[in-house]
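Reviewers asked in the last cycle whether our approach scales beyond single polypeptides. To address this, we selected a multi-component target totalling 564 residues and predicted its structure end to end. The input consisted of the following lines:
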Amino acid sequence: MTVYLPIAEISVNLFLILGMGGLVGFLSGMFGVGGGFLMTPLLIFVGIPPAVSVASVANQITATSVSGVLAHWRRGNVDFKMGTIMLVGGIVGTLIGTWIFTLLTSIGQVDLMISLSYVIFLGTIGALMFAESAKAMINTRKGNVRRKKLHQHYWIHGLPFKMRFRKSKLYISALMPLGLGALVGILSSIMGVGGGFVVVPAMIYLLGMPTSVVIGTSLFQIIFVTMNVTLLHSMTTQTVDIMLALLLMSSSVVGAQIGTRMVNKLRGEQLRILLALIVLFVCLKLAFDLVITPDDLYSLGYGGK
Amino acid sequence: MTLALRNLALSLTAICSACLMPNEPARAQSSLETDISSHLISVTSDFTGTELLLFGAIKYDEEDLGQGQGDVLVVVRGPEKDIVVRRKDRVAGIWINTDAVEFSRVPSFYAIASNRPIEEIAPADLLSRLRLGPSRLRFRANEPANVSLPFEEAIVRQKSLEDLYSDQAAAVYFLGDTLFRTTIAIPANVPVGDYIAEFYLFKDGELMSAQSSPLFIKKSGLGRTIFDFAHDYPALYGIAAIIVALFAGWLASAVFRKD
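The resulting structure, written as structure tokens, was:
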């Protein structure tokens, strides 16, 4: 059964799109990532134009994140104070990111920069997470459960404007979540993702937030980032395909609900090692595509898109 | 207006090719009467492609009557767009877009059908001049021909892969000496816009007559409404998309809360 996408201007298989939405939604609910870094490449792979994929996925992630946040909120796993401060940074970051994106487009290397930044970020984060969670798993298995310090102290903790975040059990500088939010804003506008895959590890390792609170808070923040991206794309490029987004949403919100139930069944380090593996896999795939000889050295572009 | 211009160009080419034949006396021309099964193709939300029936009759003039059958060529071409073709080169181990050539007015769809291989119908130089067949299309580039040629070939190659360009994939069938018909497949990924169906009549390797008629491929139904809304009211469309997403997220959460 096929369905015609009015903005993408192609027909796609209904069940293929629904299946992809469900799978990515499941991962999203489980790990607190928007799933854009998986969904966008998948859609491009089935033939949907990259610009339409990026914009429609942003719209879909809003829905998945709302569904996820509500579920986490009921379990008391959202730190709204932390999320709101990150959001303020995110708005500033989006503006900077949009400026960088325009600059890259004028040089004509925006595709390359997107791929490279994916490879660099996914590779670094995936490797770090994998190493850390593998170490944690080995330690637990050996039985030498060394009581971890409540949190470690870096130079970060010397920053001014300290604030208390009760939900996250943290007393840190407000500049930290603000800066992190700004970084994510920049990445979202350049890479067309919600930024969850950067935010989640950063909150865990840089801020030292408990994993369970990180997921809900990350999703809370992603809602607003993707809403902004959807609006910007609708107004500037008209590439948001609401039909495609609706199809993806309808299955991904269900997937997200199942995913959030899985969170309580797995331990923190197990969740982290799974996410690390997925992140590394996507990174390798993208790196591979940059290095292997393409089937056709020529590519067609329309009207600067 | 473009249609009128093209018609004019076609008849001029027809006249010129007649003028260029020095040894032949001026004579009356055989002509074509043609039509298409549908001048409007609606792309609805369940559109999976369609087939277009193009048919007609040759009106032989008195001299040509009984002198053997003419050859018919049918072309369907889509709206013209500007295209940038980029070429990748390996730089420090990774593939990077290095060169680009811009082409203007490249047809987004091009299909040709004929009653026998077009190379047999007319000499190569005439086919090139009339630009018949995907490989003979020439696009206006911002670079000299020796640079742009491989880029131009890439357009034809990639469009062919997407089924948007086809070279004699269909055949023109004759019923008797005068009636002919052909079907041209319109794929699901067909670009919308103003199309032209062109009919060419050849006899003994010469162009006798040419005709063209308009054809429109339009979005309709829900798809059309969404497309128009997105382009006419972009801000409202964006807000609507966000509201739909927020609602969908809440709905799923509410549904799952009960169990």
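The longest strand of chain A covers residues 298-302. We regard this as preliminary and will revisit it once experimental data from Aim 1 are available.
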